[in-house]
């Protein structure tokens, strides 16, 4: 389900949330993602505002378990034009390399606290 009542999300940039004019304020932001089978080690979902990290969630995936899912949630003040991204990274196999997100496991939301 997609509720895009303030036009944060665009089909032309589906991995970003961009704060439109006149809707800045305090927001609850959350993201989660599951990595593909074969992911081992420490994994993170990292939230960024305008390219700078402001929160991260962590998951430890053991050998043979395959799927790892990380969640992160926090509050942040946003202004018009701010761009939010969520990144899934791992620190084994290929350190700090972006990992392939397993289909239908990822979500990314921002909800106004007003």
Compose a concise summary of this entry:
With 114 residues, the protein is mainly beta. The chain has strands at residues 16-18, 25-34, 41-49, 52-61, 69-78, 83-90, 107-112. The two termini are 22 Å apart.
Structure description:
- The chain is mostly beta strands and about 110 residues long.
- Strand 3 and strand 4 form a beta hairpin.
- The strands form two sheets. The chain has a four-stranded antiparallel beta sheet, with no helix packed on it. It has a three-stranded antiparallel beta sheet with strand order 5-2-7, with no helix packed on it.
- About 0% of the residues lie in helices and about 50% in strands.
- The chain has strands at about 15-20, 25-35, 40-50, 50-60, 70-80, 85-90, 105-110.
- It is elongated, with a radius of gyration of 15 Å.
- The mean pLDDT is about 75.
Radius of gyration: 15 Å
Biggest beta sheet summary = 4 strands, antiparallel
Q: For the largest beta sheet, what order do the strands appear in spatially?
A: 1-6-3-4
Topology pattern, helix = H, strand = E: EEEEEEE
Q: How many β strands by DSSP? A: 7
Structural class: mainly beta
The level of helicity is under 10%
Number of helices: 0
Mean pLDDT: 76
Tell me what portion of residues adopts beta-strand conformation. Answer: over 45%
> Low-confidence stretches at least 5 residues in length (pLDDT < 50)?
none
Q: Which term fits the overall shape?
A: elongated
């Amino acid at each position: 389900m997609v509720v895009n009542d303030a036009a944060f999300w665009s089909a032309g940039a589906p991995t970003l949330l961009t704060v439109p004019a006149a809707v800045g304020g305090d927001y609850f932001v959350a993201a989660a993602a599951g990595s593909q089978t074969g992911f081992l080690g420490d994994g993170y979902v990292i939230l960024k505002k305008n390219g700078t990290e402001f929160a991260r969630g962590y998951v430890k995936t053991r050998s043979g378990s395959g799927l790892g899912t990380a969640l992160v949630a926090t509050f942040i003040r946003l202004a018009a034009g701010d761009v939010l991204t969520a990144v899934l990274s791992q620190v084994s196999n290929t350190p700090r390399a972006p990992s392939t997100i397993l289909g239908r496991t990822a979500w990314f939301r921002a909800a106004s606290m007003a």
